[in-house]
Amino acid sequence: MNAVRYYNTLRKFACATKVVSGNFCAGAPYQPLWYAGRARPESYASLNEMAGEMQDTMVELWDIVCAKATPKSGDEHFCAIE
């Protein structure tokens, strides 16, 4: 759940500061079905699918933000997650 909150906070800040625009800034905050309590995984496969969808959504924004932030930071590892 913290990841969803963090993503929405990052998205809001990135949109407000014009780091991203367009689809990222349109519409409501990211609310996957499981986060809103409307769907629960029925199997490992559905859990894996939900996790993959969330990861794809979050990584797309992270990549854009990092592509702009890394040169400004002067640190090539500025966005390293590891």
Q: Your description of this structure?
A:
With 82 residues, this protein is mainly alpha-helical. It has one domain (2-73). The chain contains two helices and no strands. The chain has helices at 2-16, 44-73. It is globular, with a radius of gyration of 14 Å. The model has no long low-confidence stretch (mean pLDDT 86).
Helix and strand content put the structural class at mainly alpha
| H/E element sequence | HH
Outline: globular
Q: What's the mean pLDDT score?
A: 86
Strand content: under 5%
Distance between the termini: 20 Å
Please give the radius of gyration in angstroms.
14 Å
**If helices are DSSP runs of H or I spanning 4 or more residues, what is the number of helices?**
2
**How is the main sheet built?**
none
Q: Total strand count, please? A: 0
Helix amount: 40-55%
Provide a compact summary of the structure.
With 82 residues, the protein is an all-alpha fold. Helix content is 55%, strand content 0%.
Question: Which secondary structure elements does this structure contain, and how are they paired or packed?
Answer:
Layout: H1 2-16, H2 44-73
Helix pairs in contact: 1-2
What labels would you give this structure?
0% strand; mainly alpha; 82 residues
